[in-house]
């Protein structure tokens, strides 16, 4: 009887073991290195905008941001071709979110961003990627296509008043309902994050 119960225990657990995925540490390391470079120049840019010290002038920051974005896009295309949109099961939460940030900055190739958005949608439906980040990318793609956004994540900042306002939104009366469904804070709270007065 003991043998039978051990055997049944193995049968019950074995599908779980076979379904577990292993983090691709090489891919994760590559994505995190790309993300680190992506953020380095954006942090320097934010420092300049906010009147903080930076080791670089605006021209150098802009040049390096463009260079890094171009190089990252080349690598991101290779990753998408081989793996699709890397979800939590492949590169963990940090890796998946880092990859999303890289895609956010691939504005030079809107068709590629759209492709990544479709692939990310599949991962979000599986709860294998961030719904919040998906909303940001969807808005970015819509704005890039010349359409109104859905979630109000894309904003402009008035240089005189320093107030942020969202770029045009579809059905703006229900924007907070849509934001809530993907885990975003209310729009007014989000806009306060940009307040530099």
Automatic annotation (TrEMBL):
Entry-linked InterPro entries: DUF6624 (IPR046732)
Pfam families reported in the protein's UniProt record: DUF6624 (PF20329)
- Protein name per the record: Uncharacterized protein
Where does the source fall among the domains of life?
Bacteria
